[in-house]
Write a structure and sequence with these properties.
The structure holds two protein chains of two kinds.
Chain A: E1 8-15, H1 27-33, E2 47-53, E3 68-69, E4 72-81, H2 86-104, H3 111-128, E5 132-141, E6 146-149, H4 154-168, E7 172-174, H5 177-187, H6 193-196
Antiparallel strand pairs in A: 1-6, 1-7, 2-4, 3-4, 4-5, 5-6
Chain B: H1 3-9, H2 11-27, E1 31-34, E2 37-53, E3 56-62, H3 70-77, E4 81-91, E5 94-101, E6 107-111, H4 123-152, H5 155-171
Antiparallel strand pairs in B: 1-2, 2-3, 2-4, 4-5, 5-6
Classes of the chains: A alpha+beta, B alpha+beta.
Chain lengths: 207, 174
């Protein structure tokens, strides 16, 4: 369940540069190019990511421009991943190794051969693994440039910023005490450099 | 300087902000005036503090009701810094709960007031109401952070605010 339908965690960003007046034109195609695609059943692809309808994770066609909720662009980043438990790989590898050793009358298998067996086992099990799905809501207020993303994990946030850039051709600036503060100072007509000059206060010192 | 490096170098601002907010909620009953809106804030549930000593990085997590946060106050007085805190915001008879961290000021386990709209009847209505509630809380945190920063870069910080904050911090030992 995403941020809009339930509760959750989120990180914040600011779009660098404002969108052109006609940026809504062609948006459908741009989003379509990075829309979610299902992992095909017998493939060995481990992961698939892309945009889906923020109100319905199974809809990635956006037939009625469901991403447009003026003044927001709202979608969810869906991540499907096939995962095989490490113990299952270990067990299937052991069985495969024993079978080969028996057939070829060997006492042990070289490291390289065992690595090949492991790779083969992994690919075989991947085809059988049912992918797990997760959705992370993204809401971009294009009148203010602020973006909310329903995830806080660093790797996931990097992935989100990358797909945002690929889809909309805009870089995102992650919000933190420094970037937020610089923005406030700029709005007040002060120099953002004032933050660079700050040093930590000693809150334990006797006044 | 790369952003990540800058984020780490200025994390002290997030830590000071959370300590200052805690101080303000306890000394001014958490009442803030943001434009024409009145907001009440209190620290509730979990609070995490960190500090370095000769043994390395020490993390202390305290949980409980706000009036029983003596252990957390003691840890703060013992040179620990607030790195994460659960906050409750009350505005216009609505209540939000979330965890704010010092590194990114990210919102975690964010809960808005309950929405009565039905997703099936009016999905857009639910979306706009939820967005209104999310943006209200985000904008309130931004306004309070801006108030803190304004104070932090002014002479008033070292003249009045910091001595008062330090006194309150040291009171945590008693």
């Amino acid at each position: 369940m995403g941020l809009i339908s339930g509760s959750g965690s989120f990180s914040r960003y600011q779009v660098k540069g404002g969108p052109a007046e006609d940026f809504l034109e062609g948006l459908s195609e741009r989003i379509g190019r990075h829309a979610f695609r299902n992992l095909t059943e017998d493939s060995t692809q481990e992961r698939s990511t892309g945009w889906v309808n923020v109100m319905d994770m199974f809809d990635y066609r956006f037939a009625a421009l469901e991403f447009l909720k003026e003044p927001y662009i709202a979608m969810s980043l869906r991540v499907d991943e096939r995962k095989i438990p490490a113990t299952a790989i270990k067990q299937y590898c052991l069985e495969a190794e024993e079978k080969i050793k028996g057939a070829e009358n060997l006492d042990f298998l070289p490291k390289r051969r065992r690595a090949d067996i492991k790779e083969g086992v992994k690919l075989r099990l991947l085809k059988r693994a049912i992918p797990g799905s997760k959705v992370y809501d993204m809401i971009w207020n294009y009148s203010t440039g602020s973006v909310i993303f329903g995830g806080t994990n660093t790797k996931l946030c990097d992935e989100f910023q990358e797909i945002f850039l690929k889809t909309f051709n805009f870089h995102l600036l992650a919000m933190c005490p420094y970037t937020l503060g610089s923005g406030f100072l700029e709005k007040e007509g002060d120099s953002p450099d004032l933050i660079d000059g700050l040093v930590p206060s000693n809150i334990w010192e006797e006044p | 300087m790369q952003l990540l490096e800058k984020v780490r170098k200025t994390e002290f601002l997030g830590k000071e902000f959370l300590a200052w907010l805690w101080f303000r909620t306890e000394t001014e009953r958490g009442n803030f005036k943001l434009g024409d809106k009145a907001i009440e804030i209190w620290f509730d549930g979990k609070i995490t503090l960190q500090g370095e000593n000769e043994r390395g990085l020490e993390t202390i997590t305290c949980s409980g009701e706000s009036q029983n946060m003596k252990e957390a106050r003691f840890a703060l007085a013992e040179n620990k810094e607030v790195v994460q805190a659960t906050l409750v915001f009350s505005m216009d008879d609505n209540q939000w709960t979330f965890v704010l961290d010092s590194l990114w000021l990210n919102f975690k386990t964010f809960k808005t007031p309950k929405i009565i709209q039905d997703k099936r009847d009016d999905p857009d209505g639910l979306f706009y109401e939820k967005m209104f509630l999310i943006e209200a809380a985000v904008s309130a945190v931004d306004d309070i952070y801006a108030e803190f920063l304004k104070l932090r870069i002014s002479p008033e910080w070292s003249g009045e605010e910091l001595p008062a904050l330090s006194r309150w911090v040291r009171e945590g030992k008693s």
